[in-house]
Amino acid sequence: MKRLLNISDSGEIPKEYKDTPIFRLLEYHNLGLKHEIFSDPQMLIGTCMDFRLSFNIPRNFAFMIRTGGANMKNMEFKLSYAISVGGIKHIAIIGHSDCAMTKLRINEKKFVRGLVKYAKWSEKLAIKHFNTKSTVFGIKDEIDFTLKETKRLRKLYPGITVVPMIYQVEDSRLSLINEVSS
Ligand SMILES: [Zn+2]
User: Which domain holds residue 177?
Assistant: First the structure.
């Protein structure tokens, strides 16, 4: 079973998402659906801070939280705000291929050297910062982590539809994570 469901036609989007912002997100981004004008937010997108990710969505369409690895840890208050005050009922958690949060160890020396050189931190503090936070924010696998985050948020917000996706940086397209195979 494939872990990702590629969407290159609206017929490939699962019927359960019909008439929801999840469906429209996939149509806008992958299928080039003409942008509508929105006055209210339709959904929330939680995704990675990676500079390569760019979303083809209309103005006013979505709240967006961007954080390394699409890790929504410590973001719950903002999610709660978007749900309660913003009125959204749909969340897409979008991890991506080639995420730097899966390779933190490789960049450890660069991380410490960079903080010392550019931010004028002491080396001791930079090392401590890396060691304490990399274990909190580092991830092993993009698909597994996105799914884990999705399940956590479904439990936290049972009335909200939370959908896991992957942004392929190679071709800038969105895929749904196939939960049947996971
Ligand atoms: Zn990333």
Answer: 4-99+140-181
What number of residues does the chain have?
Answer: 182
3-state secondary structure of 115: helix
Span 116-152, pLDDT tens digits = 999 999 999 999 999 999 999 999 999 999 999 999 9
Tens of pLDDT along 80-129? 999 999 999 999 999 999 999 999 999 999 999 999 999 999 999 999 99
- Do 83 and 35 lie in a common domain? yes
Report every protein residue that has its C-beta within 5 angstroms of ion ligand 1: 48, 50, 99
Q: How far is the CA of 131 from the centre of ligand 1 (A)?
A: 19
- 75 and 104 part of one domain: no
Domain count, the chain: 2
Q: Alpha helices of 2-141 — where are they, by DSSP H?
A: 21-31, 76-84, 108-118, 123-137
